[in-house]
Amino acid sequence: MTPFSRRAFATAALASLLTATACADHGEKRTTTPDSGTTAPRQQAPSRATPAKGARPLARSVPVRLLIPAIGVDTPVIRLGLAPDGTVRVPPVTADDRAGWYRHSPTPGRTGPSVILGHVTVGRYGDGVFRHLAELHRGDRIVARLENGTAAEFAVTAVRTVPRTRFPVDDVYGNVDRPELRLITCGGARTGDGYADNVIVFAALSGAESPTPGER
Asked: How many domains are contained in the chain?
């Protein structure tokens, strides 16, 4: 078992806590506030891609931005670690909602499942950055822009909605032999403490765009 795999399965028992926290209402009623600048026009960029067989893993570099043209997402990416109680942190509930990369997972483009989380709603601020995540389809394009200037491009391979009480830990955190991506948010019916389900998008590396010399 690789070092990442050991770490992932050590935190597997926390997955339900992670998703429950991400799906909480935070005690505030949802409002229909205007978008907070986290989306881009849907027609700007090609939205379809195909996983490349044997796509070569990329150098390690943390993600700084995430683009999903098919659902208009263009968001900064922050780093998420573990809270003092051992649960996985989620992005803060703020008006400028952002996605968050779980820093104990591989960086996007490295071999293994890179995990990025986002809210579907953010309390009184309204819709979250991943509010349309469940609308993605197989082949939709996802781009993770990395700190070193590289753009790691992924193609959606599956979209699943699962009860949060039966979060598929092995499927999300388990070993894979190629660079993959997991996007996680909430879904399903509203409950007293948030949402009943999780939406999980699975994607595989389809290619990469390297920075031009001198650019980072």
From this structure: 1
Residue 142: name the closest of 69, 58, 76 by CA: 69
pTM, two decimal places:
0.79
Q: How far is Cα 35 from Cα 122, in angstroms, rounded to an integer?
A: 11
- Residue 71, token pair as written in the block: 């659902």
Token digits of residue 34: 């205007």
**Quick one: which of 96, 102, 39 has its CA closest to 66?**
39
Please give the pLDDT value at position 83. Answer: 80
> 184 and 171 in contact (C-beta within 8 Å)?
no
Residues in the chain: 216
Is there a domain that residue 58 lies in?
yes
Biggest alpha carbon–alpha carbon distance for the chain: 52
Residue type (1 letter), 153: E
**pLDDT grade, residue 23 (50/70/90)?**
low
Q: What residues contact residue 131 under an 8 Å CB cut-off, 6+ apart?
A: 120, 121, 185
The Cα–Cα gap between 41 and 33 comes to 18
pLDDT class for 214, splitting at 50, 70, 90?
low
Give the CATH number, domain containing residue 131: 2.40.260.10
Residue 216 lies in a domain: no
Tokens of 126: 């309204």
Quote the domain boundaries for residue 199: 3-209
